[in-house]
Amino acid sequence: MRNWACIVSGALLIGACNGSGGETGAASETSTGTTTSGAATTTGSTTGTGEPTTTVPTSTTDDTTATGTTGVEGGCAETSPPDTPIAWDKGQPDISGCATIRGQRELRAIMHLHSHHSHDACDGDPQPNGVPDEDCLADLRFGLCTPRIDVAMLSDHPTHATEAAYEELLLMREMDEPILGDGGTPIAAWLKCPDGHKVMVMPGIESAQMMPFGLEKHVSDVYGTSSPAAFAAIKEAGALAWVAHTEGRDLAELATLGLDGIELYQLHANLDPDIRMEDLGLDDDDYFAAIIPFFLQPGRQPDLATLGFLLPNEPSIVALETLGQTQRLTISAGTDAHQNVFDTIATDGERGDSYRRMIRWFNNRIRTAEFTPQAVKAALRAGNNHIVFESLGTPVGFDFYAEGAAVTEMGAEVSLAGGPLTLRAVLPTLDPRSPQGPEAPGVRGVLYRATADEREELMTWSSGQIEIEAPGPGVYRVEVWVTPKHLLPYLGDAPEYAEIEAPWIYSGALFVRP
């Protein structure tokens, strides 16, 4: 692989000139397949077969004049949309006051994140003279606190991480608190933010072979091995069995490892020229010209640089659909932030690749009834996670589940042997506290079914809820796409991006068996 972060004189957004490895594979653009029939109900517009009936859903630029509202605590979408554009906010709305969904709250989680315990973080010098770079750590803390992240799943590279005592990987400083496990030793930590918000920090490792999340102790001599025994060892240490960079992994091998989850979206796959060209079948370097002006052109909001590159990671979607025919897998989105590539100061006063910016781009939404390390990891093992590209707006009300003899949540398996199964999906609305202008976004949902033979588009709809009987076994998932017309006030000299549809939400899958 080329040292792709060096291609534009160091001015891109992720990776490192001495990165951890290369990924290869084959891919094609996302296809919609064929349309299948089914009885459906909806509150909005749909395309597909069947006659729909109505039901009720169950569930800073110069031209922005109002003050930001995204840091307002409490409540959830309980205010009216603004009369004037909301000034861009480096943070995100507080979602702790949002209604629970079938007894579960949503937590914002960053999964795949590097600290000074990674050899290539902090501009390649994370521990000058053997001492942690405290300024870089302060940037990481700010990056987690400002967007109100609830859970940080670290994934430091073995080179430095294995040299540190386990407790050092928790990144605790004087104001923070350890979270003790059943044995009375720390297994996580509360990172305390200046405004009272707290972030649960859990250690993990990323190598080319594995990415265990939520390690509760060090494990010797396994991080560089991809084998069933190695993944069993990290599970025994309390970790989730995960792999990064799914787009470059061999599916036959992944099927043998006993994984809990895979990355469905990885930032490198959209920004690394080699991966874009070889795995995604996209142009090589031309997209740089679309991205860099977001950071340097007055009038454009740098946090919206995602509009210049955000695309599905098709090989990873294929991996989920293929492996999911015989096993259940949780999905995640990998931020993979190192703060090590683009130190040029953008028009908002931050470096292009700041931890805060990359963390604000997208996150995982874990649903759990309790907020403990054990409950968070249990929810991820169960698959109850979905992905939100929140730089495009904070969604409210999204849901996807199945109902037959009982409710089946995202990420779970269910058999048709127990009788008919109804799939239900609800499109979100835009949180009125989220930065927006006077025009509403366009929102489109797509329900997919993948079998061993094909992917088919069962239905697409533009508002509200749909219901459809599952036509047979398969891997079912929902994508929500947004046409970000509401972001026009923040686009300066590039208003065309307000009319270009982009991914907003990827649901976890429902694994329907015969």
Automatic annotation (TrEMBL):
Superkingdom, natural source: Bacteria
Residue stretches of biased makeup (Low complexity): 25-79
Signal peptide start-end: 1-21
PROSITE patterns in the cross-refs: PROKAR_LIPOPROTEIN
Region ranges (Disordered): 21-95
Keywords: Signal
UniProt-listed InterPro entries: Pol/histidinol_Pase-like (IPR016195)
Protein name from the UniProt record: Uncharacterized protein
Species this chain originates from: Nannocystis bainbridge
